[in-house]
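Two proteins, back to back. First:
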Amino acid sequence: MPVAIITGASKGLGRALAEALAARGWDLVLDARSEGVLSETAAAVSAYGTRVTAVAGDVTDAGHRSELVAAAWRLGGADLLVSNASALGAEPLVRLETLPLAGLRRALEVNVVAALGLVQEALPLLRASTTGGAVIAVSSDAAAEAYETWGGYGASKAALDQLMAVLGAEESGLRVWAVDPGDMATDLYAAAVPDDHDPRPAPVDVVPAFLRLLDERPVSGRYAAPSLLVEGR
């Protein structure tokens, strides 16, 4: 069975993607900071009959990243790495004039530095994948558009996009996709803009865009989930 590592997998998009891959027969290594919620998610995903290893911890911890890759190795390797764990920098989001620099550092550490660190750790397994290794970095439209209060988070995702673009150029044997999932009804968005109660798609409704990438394996690059969903109809 193919093996995927998914960070930020206890809820939201991470959990929805984990369930979709498990339904397709993937074995999984799941990460999140909250051990209790992650254990509940792992138990639910295991119901699909695949092997699921839950490793609670913080992706900014190099030792934790090593544990994730070691867990994948024990399952047979790593065919897919999904960097989904994210930090906003401030909750709720604030204008740049009041953005705490410590919060910006945290967003960069989680969204950029840790994402690259995990890629570096997993590269030997991804390169050895018999099905073709792939990396998915969950980006944001805030990486490409200027929205008030989204400056710190958007800057971190823009940096992540650039890292993935270069990784795709350097690793010709892999597929490297930065994916903007579009607006979703998630705890992260609620924490970012708690006063915005407009309806948004559930993460499970966005997952087919990610599955399309895995099915069709287009060239490495940046993709927007809404476009993938429309084109796939």
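And the second protein:
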Amino acid sequence: MTRVDEHYEPERAGRLLRTERDALIPLLRAAPDEAYAIRTCCPGWTVRHVLAHCGSALTRVVESRFEEGVYSPESNDRDIAERADWSNSRVVDELERGMTEAGPVLAAARGRLDGVALGEWVHAGDVREAWGKPGAYGGDGLVDALDLLGQFSRSDFAAARPPLHADLDGRDEPLVLGTPDGTRPPARYIGDAPTLIRLCAGRPLPGTRYELAGATEKELVLFG
């Protein structure tokens, strides 16, 4: 990321990962092996695939391994394949280590890698969704996730999208996504925060209710 918000918090991404670690890892440890074979909303990926991807992505951060093409679909598939013979518990061990140790590296990168933390948090929501657990794309890390979402939307890594003012349930100030460029007025979203996360991450929207004016759902997808 070449542009850093004036109120950027270098510890935010690591804090989000640690908060999610404390909620997610016990859930994973308690799950039977067959639960890891359940399909998620990520095309072609089971819960185990998602967790293997997350663990490998964070290991790359911890070990500063960023070869050409890293985090591309092909690179992600290779990382998952390399863990095909691992036990589920070993996959979770790697994920826990990454969520614990990545924070200082993310802080030192001054925002350039924070999108990894946000993606990991969204994937944790994918797992909860697949297992029918409450709190998908919400929970104790939501405030930090929203701030990271706003930051990511103004980074050089986000796809160009119209600016958006999001009036979120329970939040006094609107969340502003994107950077106005003078070509169109900001779009407006009214609804809850987890649904906004779904929209920006390109996740399914069944059972949600919200108002959106000035943009289409497709235009709000920043990653996914």
